[in-house]
Design goal:
- The chain has a domain at about 5-90.
- Helix content is about 90%, strand content about 0%.
- The chain is built from four helices and no strands.
């Protein structure tokens, strides 16, 4: 085989691989979207950034392997890579990964809850104690205020008589 044909076949295989990679990364973005719900603005921003980086990556591959010249069989190769990935994986990857991550996060939160339960009880006891002390202080302040008010009234009456 001639060196040119080997180079063209390698270029075609690299374009297939970049199609596979782009679809794989986008599936991870879809997994993230399934785990963390967010609005249309954030989804649009994610898609814009993703496709910007994909364009840079494809341009880099074209520049490195084909001196920046767009060849249609590179586009066909990337499309074939994407279609092959979707045909083999379909949406199973997104479902499996989001379910696994969701279950791992649920388990981690449960472990953290169990570990922090003594701290929660301590915080509850401290809150009860602070409320108790606050109520006692308030009663004491009210008592002192009442006594001072009575003393001031008595002082006014004594001063008014003289």
């Amino acid at each position: 085989m001639s060196q040119d044909i080997v180079q063209e076949v390698t270029f075609f295989l690299h374009s297939i691989l970049i199609g596979l990679f782009i679809t794989f990364v986008y599936d991870w973005i879809l997994v993230f979207r399934k785990i963390v719900k967010h609005g249309i603005v954030l989804i649009s921003a994610e898609d814009f950034i993703f496709w910007l980086f994909c364009g840079i990556g494809v341009f880099y591959m074209l520049y490195r392997e084909n001196n920046g010249v767009l060849r249609w069989f590179a586009v066909v190769g990337a499309t074939l890579g994407m279609l092959f990935y979707k045909a083999v994986i379909k949406n199973r990857f997104i479902y499996i990964m989001s379910t696994c991550i969701h279950k791992i996060m649920w388990f981690a939160f449960r472990v953290i809850q169990v570990m922090l339960k003594p701290l929660k009880c301590l915080i509850f006891a401290v809150r009860r104690f602070v409320r108790f002390v606050f109520k006692k202080c308030k009663k004491c302040i009210d008592y002192v205020k009442k006594r001072l008010t009575g003393c001031i009234k008595m002082l006014k009456m004594v001063l008014c008589k003289h």
